[in-house]
Write a structure and sequence with these properties.
With 183 residues, the chain is mainly alpha-helical. It has two domains: 108 residues, Orthogonal Bundle (Rna Polymerase Sigma Factor, Chain: A); 74 residues, Winged helix-like DNA-binding domain superfamily/Winged helix DNA-binding domain (Arc Repressor Mutant, subunit A). The protein has ten helices and no strands. The radius of gyration is 18 Å and the shape is elongated.
């Protein structure tokens, strides 16, 4: 069944349709949000808040034309709301343990190169990071990214190109630092 059909059922009061959406999207949505926020507990809270908003919209009878980009738009905006809250930002962002916790959390990811890439991506601005995560980690098409972030396709293409260029510069710089440190 298509996601939009589940939303249609939810709008008719069939709550099991919502369960199917949560089952289908919890893991990829968590991965996307975690990559943006680098905090496991906060990412889980944002996932729950995102699904709550989806449920509430479904109960009101709203059925999006394309569910997946709409859902990621809600998730992205919820992350942006977090960044706008000064108290939350101080609690999480100024904590120097975030970097260590992020490294420890990825015990599953024993691949140092992957961690290096994630750390490099996290040096990018939120605008560039978001489009790159949606494109390369969530496998979104440009049109889906545009819908999810409420941007034009040209803006999406520009942000991806600029983000990749900045990422390349970061990786080259890090590689040079590593090479000079080993001599």
């Amino acid at each position: 069944m298509h996601d939009e059909e589940y939303m249609q059922q939810l709008s008719l009061g069939i709550d099991t349709a919502f369960d199917a959406l949560v089952f289908r999207y919890h893991k990829p949505l968590f991965g996307y949000i975690y990559r943006l926020l680098q905090d496991e507990k906060l990412a889980e809270d944002v996932v729950q808040e995102t699904f709550l908003k989806i449920y509430q919209q479904g109960q009101k009878g709203f059925v999006p034309d394309q569910f997946k980009p709409w859902m990621y738009k809600i998730a992205t905006n919820t992350c942006k709301d977090y960044w706008r809250k000064p108290a939350s930002r101080l609690e999480y962002v100024t904590d120097q343990d975030i970097e260590k916790a992020g490294q420890v959390h990825h015990i599953i990811d024993h691949q140092l190169e992957r961690q290096w890439m994630v750390e490099s991506l996290n040096q990018l601005s939120l605008d560039y990071r978001t489009v790159l995560y949606l494109r390369f980690y969530q496998d979104f098409k440009y049109s889906e990214i545009a819908l999810a972030l409420d941007l034009s396709i040209n803006t999406v293409k520009t942000r991806i190109a600029r983000g990749l260029k900045q990422l390349e510069n970061i990786l080259v710089t890090d590689e040079r630092k590593g090479a000079s440190g080993n001599e």
